[in-house]
Amino acid sequence: MTDRQVPLDTDTNLENKKPLHFLQQIIRKDLEQGVHSSIATRFPPEPNGYLHIGHAKSICLNFGLAEEFGGTCNLRFDDTNPEKENEEYVNSIKQDVAWLGFKWNGDVRYTSDYFDQLFQWAIYLIEEGLAFVCDLTGEQMRDYRGTLTEPGKNSPYRDRSVAENLALFEKMRVGEFDEGACSLRAKIDMASPNINLRDPILYRIKKAHHHQTGDKWCIYPSYDYAHGQSDAIEGITHSICTLEFEDHKPLYDWFIQHLPVPAIPRQYEFARLNINYSVTSKRKLKQLVDEGHVDGWDDPRMPTISGMRRRGFPPAALRDFCSRIGVTRADGIVDVGVLEFCVRDELDKNAPRAMCVLRPVKVVLTNYPEHQIETLNIHNHPNREELGDRAVSFTQTIFIEQDDFREEANKKYKRLVKGKRVRLRGAYVIEADEAIKDASGNVVEIRARIIEGTLGKDPADGVKPKGVIHWVSATQHLNCEVRIFERLFTDEAPDAGGKNFLESINPHSLEILTGCKAELSLAKAKIDERFQFERQGYFCLDTKYSTAEKIVFNRTIGLKDSFAKIDDQE
Ligand code: ATP
Ligand code: MG
Fold it and tell me: 106 pLDDT exceeds 80?
């Protein structure tokens, strides 16, 4: 954790001059008034899936506040549902948090670390006459619960004696009852207008193996019972969650009030992140994976943190995005264009440039020596000299994009046209003489000439080329595969209003290009390195399909917002 100055004297964050959001204001006030001498937050994922962009917001908020105010942030797995959880999810979540650039306080924690204490406190509630073992079935319990407009009814088991409840609860613990036979409930108020206070469940029987505690337990605490007490055990000061927990807050406070907990945490809610052209629900993302609509949780089209990582999104871009969208209590939908803007902005500043021809056509430079290999030094970045130069081989035969040549074109087309000139990026100006075609009329080879003396200089005859295109040597290159991704959904709101999100899956969201030609320097590309392929967008190595024999690049994102594309091609 950094020991940055706590911004006590103004209503803005000193570092970036942004107004403080409501949680920053609350924390600032708590520190100012001595309610807390330092703050502690936590990020509490349930290990039942991979994290998505919405979780990134929660991570940036919880870890970000701790950093900003010199406090700590714990990573705690909320592992009270053993059937849906597993170690693979635990590991992916740890990796995602670390990759985003955050360091949790001390060891990773688990709600299951506190199962003994939570069990003791359940006994305490029974002894205080505040909890009872209830034999109603799930269905009966729903009937007894009432509705938003009607009060509920007391369970017929509500008045069991303390001794009987203690004995029954012990029997639950040792596994004498079947799943669903009974549960432990708090005794609060079946007439409460807040349904969460109508004798909520504290413990249910689940004869399930647990990824952390093995077979030690066959009763598991509910989220509502476990969460606040775990916060108290860890000394969390500000327990930040999304708005759907607002109605659970009175219950959160009820437990804290009625149990001898070592600290008094407070719950605060903020609006969850929704993003268009996307779904942000672990359950739906899991369905996409399980039914094979995508290639795993880390498919580069997924809004998961691991998918975005594999696609090449830099962690700094995600942090920037989370800071731009802000923290409020008003629900809204953020345009995915904001995220894409942050990714482009970060990559434009930092990604070294390289050349790769995605759909190649051969160009033979008839006046260039056949076996000559000329080494050209090309800047890695147009305005960051410190990123250095790289060597690119120039030869008699090169590849350019098929799209970058036309036999005839109007003035708006600024690439290679028969009889006209174009500059090759970092190399010569060339002029096209002839197009050789196959039987079906496709151009298979272009014959052209270099204009002498044009390396870094304009042609001496004053006939300047109008455009610059990228190229790769036909003998000194790297063969590769390139994967181009489009949005996974064609519908802006794939799951809104009960729509079936599977119906708007974009059938063209993945295009695989083989036989692409990259400059040789890209043979040294490393995992986590990102490049701008000149005129094509930003790319990175694919971690799943790249092998020693086969190189696969993912297109992270195009250079321009394709939705706002202005066609400057003709
Ligand atoms: P999902 O709805 O995708 O299953 P969840 O809330 O069940 O998510 P948890 O593992 O319980 O997933 O979430 C961990 C933390 O992340 C919680 O504090 C939760 O409030 C927060 N969180 C989850 N989704 C979002 C979101 N879309 N925006 C902001 N925070 C989120
Ligand atoms: Mg949850």
Answer: yes
Number of neighbouring beta carbons within 10 Å of residue 201: 16
Q: What is the pLDDT of residue 563?
A: 52
The Cα-based distances of 258 to 131, 253, 265, 299 in angstroms read: 11, 9, 14, 46
Ligand number nearest CA of 245 is: 1
Distance of alpha carbon 197 from alpha carbon 208, whole angstroms: 27
pLDDT of residue 18: 84
Considering just the CA atoms, what is the radius of gyration of the chain in Å?
31
First vs last C-alpha separation in the chain: 54
Quick one: pLDDT at residue 15?
A: 57
Q: Which atom of ligand 1 is nearest to the CA of 57?
A: 29
Residue 550 exposure: Cα atoms within 13 Å on the Cβ side: 11
Beta bridge partners of 267: 239
Q: Which of 42, 282, 319, 418 is catalytic?
A: 282
Q: How far is CA 544 from CA 471, 552, 553, in A?
A: 27, 9, 10
Pairing of strands 468-469, 510-519: unpaired
Whether 45 lines ligand 1, by a CB cut-off of 6 Å, is: yes
Residues 458-470 have a mean pLDDT of: 96
509 contacts 487 by C-beta, under 8 angstroms: yes
User: How many angstroms separate the alpha carbon of residue 114 from the centre of ligand 2?
Assistant: 19
Token digits for 242?
Answer: 């999304």
Q: How far apart are CA 178 and CA 172, in angstroms?
A: 9
Alpha-carbon span 561 to 548, nearest angstrom: 33
CA torsion angle 513 516 520 525 (round to 10)? -10
Query: Helical H runs in 313-367?
Result: 315-325, 336-350
> Atom 16, ligand 1: which residue's CA is nearest?
55
Determine contact, residues 559/537, Cβ cutoff 8 Å.
Answer: yes
Q: Ligand 1 centroid to 306 CA: how many Å?
A: 16
55 lines ligand 1 (CB under 6 A): yes
Candidate of 60, 242, 286, 501 to mutate for ligand 1, largest count of ligand atoms within 8 Å of Cβ: 242
Phi-psi region of 290 (alpha: psi -120 to 50; beta: other; left: phi over 0): alpha
pTM: 0.94
Give me the sign of the Cα torsion angle 394, 397, 400, 406. Answer: positive
Alpha-carbon torsion (123, 129, 131, 135), positive or negative = positive
Angle at alpha carbon of residue 515, lines to 510 and 519, rounded to 5°: 105
pLDDT at 37 over 80: yes
Is the Cβ–Cβ distance between 397 and 362 less than 8 Å? yes
pLDDT reported for residue 4: 40
